[in-house]
Amino acid sequence: MKRLMLPLALLFALHGTAWAQDAAANKVMDCARANIPQALTIKEFDLTAVDRVGGTRALKGRIYAIRENNLLRAMIKMVAPADLARSSFLLREGKGNDDMWIYLPALDRVRRITGASTSGPLFGTDISYSDVKQMENAFSGGDVHLEKTDTLQNRPMNVLRLIPDKHEDSRYSLVRGWIDQKTCVPLQVDFYEGSEVRKRLLGDAADIKQDNGHWYLAKAKMTDLKDGTHTVLSITGVTSDDRLSSRYFSSQTFSTAE
Hints:
Blueprint: E1 19-20, H1 23-33, E2 39-50, E3 56-68, E4 71-80, E5 88-92, E6 99-104, E7 109-113, H2 129-136, E8 142-152, E9 155-164, E10 174-180, E11 186-193, E12 196-203, E13 208-211, E14 214-217, E15 219-224, E16 229-240
Parallel strand pairs: 1-8
Antiparallel strand pairs: 2-3, 2-16, 3-4, 4-5, 5-6, 6-7, 8-9, 9-10, 10-11, 11-12, 12-15, 13-14, 15-16
């Protein structure tokens, strides 16, 4: 996810196979994992991308995700606008490298995303292809530590710190997340390039919701602090469903799965 995480039921919750070097960090991550169902459908999400001069672009889509041998499989299917309808993105997390594919109806072909292309924008938003994993699976692929406790929005937080593994070829030097102690939902995630925060994912505690015993963040904003752009993400219609078809998560069939 792994409930983006997250961030957003899928896009903003913590999950992952990261090895934490201290028991306190493991405890926080275990609490976050308890928020994640085995399979999840987000019936609709909205993205509003805002450029540096205030121009906006509205997008809608659906998300499907499962855990398979504790590894994330996530598929995003766009519904609107018309020029993006049926465009799809598939992420299959690996124990080493991850596999990513995109389908664009205008080209009528599936393309694998590799190398520097993983830093490209997802459907023209402030979220890159590689950010999808870090948002869904924010503290995997590196060593995680409980850095400190803190207060955010008058709520007690655990602050986790991730140094990405070198083999991940991550654009980020550091990922730091503020995890709500009551719900184990991240309210802020900072993505560093060098010593500077390049992107910030921020939610409001008022948007923490609960569905079938699972806590999630229903709305958040990803800001590119360097470019001065941002994307607001909102979710409606969350469903846990262990019967999701494997067609959603195969590189051979995800582009046509409905």
